Amino acid sequence: MRLTVNGIERGIESAPLTPLLYVLREELGITSPKAGCQQGGCGACTVLVDGEARRACLLAVAAVDGAEITTVEGLGAPEALSAIQTAFHEHYAAQCGFCTSGMLIAAHAYLEHGGSGERESIQETLSGHVCRCTGYVKIIDAVAAAAGGEITSRQKWLPQTGEESPVEVPGAPA
Amino acid sequence: MTGLDVLVPSSPEEAVAAYGDGDGVTVIAGGTIVLPEITYGRLRPSKAILLKDAGLAGITRDGSRVTIGATTPVVELTELPAPIGPCAANVADSEIRAQGTVGGNLCAGIGPEAPRGDLQGALLAVGATVRTGGSGGEKTQPLEEFLADREGKLLLDVSYDEPAAGAFASLDRPHTHDYTALAVSAARAEDGTTRLAVSGVAGHAVRLPSAEAKADNPQAAGEAAAGDATFADDALASAWYRGQTLPVLVRRALTQLQEA
Amino acid sequence: MKAVGARLPRYDGVAHVTGRTTFVDDVRVPGTLWVKALRSPAHNADIKRLDTSKAEAMEGVHAIITWQDVPLLEYGHLSALGIPADEPLLAKDEVRYKGQPIAVVAAEDETKAQLAVEAIELDLEEKPALFDVRKAFDSDAPVVHQWGNWYTHFEDEMDRRQIRKGSIQEAFDKADVIVQGVYRPAAIEHVPLETQVCQVVPEADGRLTIYSCTQALYFSMGVVAAHLQVPLNRLKFVGGTVGGGFGGKVDTATETMCSLLALKSGKPIKWRWTREEEFLCSSTRAPWHMEIADAVTKDGWILGRKMLTLHDSGAYSRFSPYGLTKHSFHHTGAYTIPNLEFDGYVVYTNRVPTTAMRGFGVTSVSFAVETHMNRIAKELGLDPFEIRLKNANRIGDTSPNGIVYTDPSTVPTILAVADELGHELPADYRTMSSEKREGELLPEHLVGQLGNPEDH
Lengths: 174, 260, 456
Ligand SMILES: Cc1cc2nc3c(=O)[nH]c(=O)nc-3n(C[C@H](O)[C@H](O)[C@H](O)COP(=O)(O)OP(=O)(O)OC[C@H]3O[C@@H](n4cnc5c(N)ncnc54)[C@H](O)[C@@H]3O)c2cc1C
Ligand code: FES
Ligand code: FES
Known about the structure:
The complex is a heterotrimer.
Chain A: E1 2-5, E2 8-11, H1 20-27, E3 46-49, E4 52-55, E5 68-70, H2 83-90, H3 100-112, H4 119-126, H5 137-146
Chain B: E1 5-7, H1 12-19, E2 25-28, H2 34-39, E3 47-50, E4 59-62, E5 65-69, H3 84-89, H4 94-99, H5 102-106, H6 119-125, E6 129-134, E7 139-142, H7 143-148, E8 153-161, E9 165-170, E10 183-188, E11 194-199, E12 206-207, H8 209-212, H9 218-225, H10 239-259
Parallel strand pairs in B: 1-3, 2-3
Antiparallel strand pairs in B: 4-5, 5-8, 6-7, 6-8, 9-10, 10-11, 11-12
Chain C: H1 13-17, E1 33-39, E2 45-51, H2 53-56, E3 61-65, E4 94-95, E5 101-107, H3 110-119, E6 121-126, E7 161-165, H4 168-174, E8 177-183, E9 197-202, E10 208-212, H5 217-228, E11 235-238, H6 255-265, E12 269-272, H7 275-281, E13 284-285, E14 288-296, E15 302-314, H8 320-329, E16 339-348, E17 354-355, H9 362-380, H10 384-391, H11 410-421, H12 427-430
Parallel strand pairs in C: 1-12, 10-11, 13-17, 15-16
Antiparallel strand pairs in C: 1-5, 2-4, 2-6, 3-5, 7-16, 8-14, 9-10, 9-12, 14-15
Helix pairs in contact in C: 5-6, 8-9
Bound molecules: flavin-adenine dinucleotide and FE2/S2 (inorganic) cluster (2 copies).
One FE2/S2 (inorganic) cluster (FES) binds at residues 35-38, 40-45, 55, 57 of chain A.
């Protein structure tokens, strides 16, 4: 079996019914998809399979033989964040970060498919993804911002200083 | 998983041949139900068939006859008229709907804690028939009969005559990952007969014959429905709650149907 | 103070959004063995036989530990605070909740570990189980715990947390109305997206490196060191990246067992709980049973409160005695009540042991108190805002455990809520503040009750 993961073609040794999630994490060492439930219930394992958001825990690797897989590692690197990654960072949409990879992949697919940025459509898209920390508002804000949709009224609740980044913090985007 | 035999047939004929009489075979369609069973060690297959390339996907129409291939993803049903469209749209979330199939839904496990197939109810209401392969060769039979005994059958497709009108009423789901605790599908065929079916009951979905007999009177039909189903307690709802809400859903579905 | 009021980028934000944050499950250690547990299938049972020999002989199995492998079997989560230990790391003679670990297996992969778990021979003799705290005190109730059905080791070996303040009798004599209520919030699972997980690496120098998802790193280190009976400097804990905790990762759920497996096998060990284990076997927020009876005047002053709390601790104590203590200190909520009689018990049941969750012991009582305030308002036909403002904590008021409030915030908070909701209030309520009650602001029942904040 073969997979193209984040643009690199790889041969696969795992047994054919091994979930794609295990293949990525254990065989290929790609750890952004998380094992939150291993039964389709949380969305933390979501990756792009030929451009569509899919639960890696529900797919036998043999069922995606030959497919092109994209994980968050393939969306953008720290020095070159993609639009959705930037939006998540700037809107504080990642708290503990455990759900974030799956959310980003689903949001990325939504944008690629021309998502309108309306809150309801974002909610519908992300409805299979569980976040236990953020309460979802900031996540939806981030996706809406990346979609160029309406910036939400919640924004006025955030303290604004008028400065971009008033304090030097390591890891902050330029 | 040593000694595991995984087959990936590339046509319906190959799928039927690979399936044989189905003994000891694990069929994997979308895998949304079956893969966690394997991961969690509750199922340890020795022979598995992946249906993804078996040429069993797609919706075709012949006059008013609609045929849905077994591996058609649930998402492709969401635009169909009621009760099937709204029922399909009520299954899981968009990503699971794109992966899970009609066949997997109709063949979902049985038991109070088992995943259920919500589409069973909608397809019963339109009087669907299924075509299967497996032990005893190819067979076409009413969905009801199939649901009662699926042993040794590989589902190939499901077909039905488009109804004159349809309706779907369900209890709201608290989250897209909660199964619908109870849902009622109703359809009026071109010849005027009304069929009603409920999913979320103990076992697979069932028709509601006593309620169908009173279909002209939604209130009376609702009251009659309770005797047609048995309910089970599970994490979603108690048997009692389901018993109390079935008449309401029957009434709503029939009222919708009258207005359709 | 450039940071106050400014939007600071999260220090870990970029790592999160690029998938590069290393959670415990993401630590890669070649040759790692995976762990599965044999857990009790019964709620309450005696262990008649436990035989791991067949499992040990299986292909790919490297180590199995049972209670016999634990240097110090019982160590309480609060042993360091003088609360005696009652919970074995692995069940010995009996199991007291469904899901209690009995043995853990380390094998080359999860499937092999699970097959070995299934090969362990276990005979149980089931006993009647107790799930309802209200039945724990019945003479014919099943006995759940070695100390009886409730905790008996509060100070001076008291069997309850007790608060007495003022004269409850006098308050009830003077009351116009007695308002009663029973409040029973249920157990809640924390559901962190990252399930319990730990990776232990035995180092060449004999030390253990423990990658832990704990919320309480030094605490977990103490617990592991105590069970293993090793000095702290033998353990190197690596923590700080937690995939959600909410209180559920205060208990040391996996680290000790993985450490023992690492020592026994000499190999790196990883244990990642399944979502089902997380739901069924990890500790939860406790269910509580709270009964309140308030002595109230018809114009809405609360003169006295009698309260009985049964804190469902589950099968073992863990943090519950501490949680109940916090609960007792907060049993008047944000309000001042001068006459109190509070009795709280930590009750054992055959449920999974309970633990901290966001305001440990206090959220339950806040729920009860606030619901009760509404009930009082309703029974008296008064405005629920006014009754709260009237009884609100003010400077100089004292808490149930005798702390004098120097900076209470009840009044401004309730006024802000009223504003936000557009709730109209009469002028004398609208102008209320947290200032000390004096002169005509001092109601009769609080005369002689006030403390001097300056003394604190
Ligand atoms: C988070 C989550 C939420 C869900 N919510 C819902 C919901 O709300 N409503 C609902 O109905 N379902 C729900 N499901 C269940 C499931 O996704 C759907 O029922 C789906 O349609 C199953 O299809 P599948 O192709 O993935 O099934 P699979 O897992 O591939 O198969 C399911 C069963 O059917 C058998 N099977 C599959 N195809 C055939 C065939 N052609 N012939 C014979 N046997 C076959 C398999 O052997 C297996 O036993 C949910 C699942 C998840 C993970
Ligand atoms: S791990 Fe795949 S959905 Fe939770
Ligand atoms: S950020 Fe923690 S689960 Fe979403």
